[in-house]
């Protein structure tokens, strides 16, 4: 299996990797950091049975709290889906967004936010049921594919299928968890997202061993 390059871009109202003065003053006045995370992606940000958030993105949030306030526990985690994340950041609902989010030129220049840096690189892939016997994404011609709406994932898939003259029907959901569950229960022929998330969500499926990743990685996601 090809090793995936894995991503979760960290965004904040920040300049040159440091939180801007206004944001820092706001954090200090409140006494805690409001940090936007996913609604649940194993390995990146997911609450355990006791409601304690864990994962790479969560640790970044705690690092910000430690740097700004001297206490890594001074964080309030705000779960956000792809549609909500940028609005929440731009409006001040959250101070920092540490969430699986791709850094693009458009997002960096048109949304009124700044990317502080990249903490993971990924690539987009596709999960299918092993019983289908597929060996390539190009065999998904005419397939239904579960995908999260409002993401680069959705756009990358459209570009890839158009480039290769393949037909597909996107079945869109607000969260990757919903998309993965729909695929797992048979609503779609395939599920696509960044491979790091795909493998994390695969662990929650009814029979993870029955699900495989096709070999193509169709994007590079910072």
What does this structure look like?
With 222 residues, this protein is α/β, with parallel strands linked by helices. The protein folds into two domains: 7-121, Periplasmic binding protein-like II (D-Maltodextrin-Binding Protein, domain 2), CATH 3.40.190.10; 124-213, D-Maltodextrin-Binding Protein, domain 2 (3-Layer(aba) Sandwich), CATH 3.40.190. The chain has seven helices and 14 strands. The strands form four sheets. It has a five-stranded mixed beta sheet, with helices on both faces. Strand 11, helix 5 (152-163) and strand 12 (168-173) form a beta-alpha-beta unit. The longest helix has 14 residues, at 56-69. The chain is globular and about 55 Å long. The relative contact order is 0.20.
